[in-house]
Design brief:
Layout lengths: L2 H31 L1 H11 L3 H16 L8 H12 L2 H19 L4 E7 H8 L1 H7 L4 E8 L7 H29 L3 H33 L8 H15 L1 H22 L8
Antiparallel strand pairs: 1-2
Helix pairs in contact: 1-2, 1-8, 1-9, 1-11, 2-5, 2-10, 3-4, 3-10, 4-6, 6-7, 8-9, 9-10, 9-11
Length: 270
């Protein structure tokens, strides 16, 4: 193999890795790292049955603890379910998610996801709200940065950097590979193979992250540990859905390009 062809293959591999990493980071930056994107993801995650059930149970338990004993739990549960379906809860959820995201991204030692249930109950059931008094904020989740496998602030900085550098790096590296290659089919195959490997690594990372999140989650006021872990796993899957899509597309496209580039058909025998 000539030095020129070796350089072309190296550039193609860099392009394949950069394409998959850059595309997944681009999605994560806009959908998870940014406060607006994170709030939107929280709203979408709430549509998952396990997440919705966990949120309702936790809020019911915390509100019930602040009520007189004669107020039936069934009434509280009915009010909370109606509240979760209302617009006031959507606003409170978006605000709480944005504050939680801010704390995570700036590297706060402890980040708490809270929802202002006082205002929500005022608009859903004023009579019950009067009984509760100042119900304040209901805690949905609390994250200690020291318990996480990666530092959230550093991870957010890495995502922003990959999102900015990855796509242009992939474009120019692939263009350079095709420009200098003596065998362009092999360069395309190397690009596809690198994209396939990067996609498989993404799948492995997503699975490892989901397992790590489940292991660290504990029960709450109204939740068992098993229920909390099911909700966390569902929320993780929803939060990383775009990355999974990139991995599927990158893996499928990479496999096709690798086969097309390194396959024996169409090549002349020497």
């Amino acid at each position: 193999m000539s030095g020129r062809q070796a350089l072309a293959l190296l550039l193609a591999v860099v392009a394949g890795l950069g394409a998959v990493a850059g595309a997944s980071a681009w999605w994560m930056r806009d959908a998870v790292v940014s406060r607006d994107g994170f709030a939107d993801r929280a709203a979408v995650a709430l549509e998952q049955e396990a997440v919705r059930d966990a949120v309702e149970r936790e809020i019911v338990a915390q509100v019930r603890d602040r009520l007189p004993a004669q107020v039936p739990r069934a009434r509280v549960r009915d009010v909370v379910r109606r509240a979760v379906d209302g617009g006031a809860f959507d606003v409170a959820l978006a605000s709480g998610a944005a504050e939680f995201n801010d704390a995570l991204v700036r590297g706060a030692p402890t980040s708490t996801f809270e929802i202002d249930m006082g205002r929500v109950l005022d608009q859903t059931d004023p009579e019950l709200a009067a009984l509760v008094g100042d119900v304040g904020r209901a805690r949905i989740a609390r994250v200690h940065a020291g318990d996480l496998p990666v530092n959230p602030k550093r991870a957010a900085d890495l995502v922003r950097g990959l999102a900015a550098v990855g796509p242009p790096l992939a474009f120019f590296a692939l263009a350079g590979a095709l420009a200098v290659a003596r065998d362009r089919r092999a360069a395309v195959g190397a690009f596809g193979l690198a994209a396939l490997v990067a996609s498989l690594l993404l799948f492995a990372g997503l699975a490892a992250g989901r397992a790590a999140v489940r292991d660290e989650v504990r029960g709450g006021t109204g939740l068992s540990t098993a229920q909390a872990r099911d909700a966390a796993a569902a929320a993780w899957s929803e939060a990383t859905g775009g990355v999974r899509t990139v991995a599927i597309a990158g893996g499928a496209g990479g496999l096709l390009l690798a086969v097309a580039g390194f396959g024996p058909w169409g090549r002349r025998r020497r």
